[in-house]
Structure formats: C-alpha cells, structure tokens
C-alpha cells in the first residue's frame, strides 16, 4: 500500500500539474497505465469542475491516493460550491457531431471510468471518494 | 504541449506531444484553428505522444471536427494510446472521428 498526498490552490495549471504528478506516482507504484490515466482523469475532472463551476476558483483542495493490490482509491476534498458528482450526467453520447453539446463530458467520464464513487458534504467542503480497479501485472 | 506540423501532399500532419487538458487545450485549439482556416482542410493529428486527455481536450477536438466539417474538409486522429481510446469510446467520440492505427494509414485515407 502506498500513499500520495497533495494540496493545491485550484486553477487550471495547478490541476494539470497535480494530475500529472498523480499519474507519475501511480506508474512508479506499478499501477497499470489504464488505471493510472483514469485516476488522474477523474481528479482533473472533479477539480476542473470546481474551477469553472464551483464558485471557488483559487481556493484550496487536496487529493489523497492509496494504492491497494486490486485498486486505486482516491479522495478529493474541495471548498467549492456543494456538488454531488453522483448526479446523473446530462449528455447523449450517441448524438451526431452537429448535435453534440459541449458540456457534461467530465461527469460522464467520471461515472464511466470509476468502479465506485462516493460523496459527502462535510460542512464547508465537498469530499469525493472514488476507486478504480487495477489490471493485475503479468 | 508540443505541436509539430508537417505537410504530406494535401494533408497536414500535426504531431502532438504531452497532455491535452484544461491547461493546454486553448493553445491546441488556436493552432488547429489556424491550420483549418482554409477551404477543404485535410488534417491528421498524430496522438502517439499524447498521454492524457480530459474533457477539456475533448471539447477542443469536437470544435476542430465541427470546423473541418463546415469547411467540407477531412480530419483524422492516429496512434491513440489505449486509455485515451477508451475515453473516446465512452464519450461516443470514437464514432464521430476518423481513427487510424498509424500515421501512414491516416495520411493515405485523407490523401
């Protein structure tokens, strides 16, 4: 079991750097590229949502990753507006190019790549926990 | 993100390296908008060096695709890494995009 802990001030550059560091940590921990990418992806989507919709750009957020033999677990805490990411995404992924709406992709990806997604509002912060299964090495 | 352009006949090939996310997507969009600001553009983006794509990156890809279609052009991606290919599948983008395993196949398809 290995841990990664990071605190950031939410803006797009900081989110990008954090997601890259998380991905690198997971790769170094022996996590398969799919799980490593998707964990970093969900972290990016959750924090980008705070930056653009959460009414709390440039506020603190923290991420904690735990690598288990069968999965990676992540906890993302932010001080943005109250938002439960378990909310169903409002998007039609089968729509043709001209009809595609630009929003909703992040939530759709968050739902589809995670194997578990949990959320709680803790007084003044969102706390989202998710996990993604690892592909066993070899 | 690093973008390198190369012209092969009527096709412009852009080799992209790095991450396509909220931090880099605007620069990617600006560069590709310039390359597609012509009648019937034919554009291949080589994704072999792209190791991360978020929804912000997908929005730019969709914007380029719409722009190329409006100009009666052609747009393809090649050499997409497996985790990113899964992202394209989940979001339905794989069905909208012209995807090729390698650069040669993509250029041949658009030539």
Strand-helix topology:
The complex is a heterodimer of chains A (138) and B (111).
Chain A: E1 2-9, H1 12-28, H2 33-53, E2 60-67, E3 71-78, H3 105-113, E4 116-121, E5 126-133
Antiparallel strand pairs in A: 1-2, 2-3, 3-5, 4-5
Helix pairs in contact in A: 1-2, 2-3
Chain B: E1 2-8, E2 11-20, H1 25-35, E3 42-53, H2 55-70, E4 74-78, H3 82-91, H4 93-96, E5 98-100, H5 103-110
Parallel strand pairs in B: 2-3, 3-4, 4-5
Antiparallel strand pairs in B: 1-2
Helix pairs in contact in B: 1-2
Tell me about this structure.
The complex is a heterodimer of chains A (138) and B (111). Chain A is an alpha+beta fold and 138 residues long. Chain A has one domain: Heat Shock Protein 90, CATH 3.30.565. In chain A, strands 1-2-3-5-4 form a five-stranded antiparallel sheet, covered by helices on one side. In chain B, helix 1 packs parallel to helix 2. Chain B has one domain: STAS domain (Transcription Regulator spoIIAA, 2-Layer Sandwich). With 111 residues, chain B is α/β, with parallel strands linked by helices. Chain B starts with a strand and ends with a helix. Classes of the chains: A alpha+beta (138), B alpha/beta (111).
- The stretches of 5 or more residues of chain A where confidence is low (pLDDT under 50) are none
Largest interface: A-B, 31 and 28 residues
Could you name the CATH homologous superfamily of chain B? Answer: STAS domain
Helical residue percent of chain A?
25-40%
Radius of gyration of chain B: 12 Å
Strand order of the largest sheet of chain A: 1-2-3-5-4
Count of domain modules of chain B: 1
């Amino acid at each position: 079991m290995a841990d990664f802990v990071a605190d950031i001030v939410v803006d797009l550059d900081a989110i990008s750097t954090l997601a890259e560091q998380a991905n690198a940590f997971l790769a170094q921990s022996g996590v398969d590229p799919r799980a490593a990418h998707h964990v970093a992806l969900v972290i990016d989507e959750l924090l980008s949502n705070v930056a653009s919709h959460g009414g709390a750009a440039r506020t603190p957020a923290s991420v904690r990753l735990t690598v288990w033999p069968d999965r990676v677990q992540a906890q993302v805490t932010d001080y943005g507006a109250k938002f439960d990411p378990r909310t169903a995404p409002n998007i039609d992924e089968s729509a043709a190019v001209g009809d595609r709406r630009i929003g909703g992709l992040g939530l759709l990806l968050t739902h589809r790549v995670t194997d578990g997604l949990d959320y709680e509002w803790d007084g003044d912060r969102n706390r989202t926990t998710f996990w993604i299964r690892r592909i066993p090495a070899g | 993100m690093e973008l390198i352009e190369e012209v092969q006949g009527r096709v412009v090939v852009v080799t992209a390296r790095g991450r396509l996310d909220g931090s880099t997507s605007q620069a990617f969009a600006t560069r590709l908008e310039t390359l597609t600001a012509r009648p019937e553009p034919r554009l291949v983006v080589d994704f072999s060096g792209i190791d991360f794509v978020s929804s912000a990156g997908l929005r730019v890809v969709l914007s380029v695709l719409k722009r190329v279609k409006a100009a009666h052009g052609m747009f393809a991606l090649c050499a997409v890494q497996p985790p990113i290919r899964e992202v394209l599948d989940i979001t339905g983008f794989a069905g909208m995009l012209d995807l090729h395993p390698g650069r040669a196949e993509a250029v041949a398809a658009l030539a």
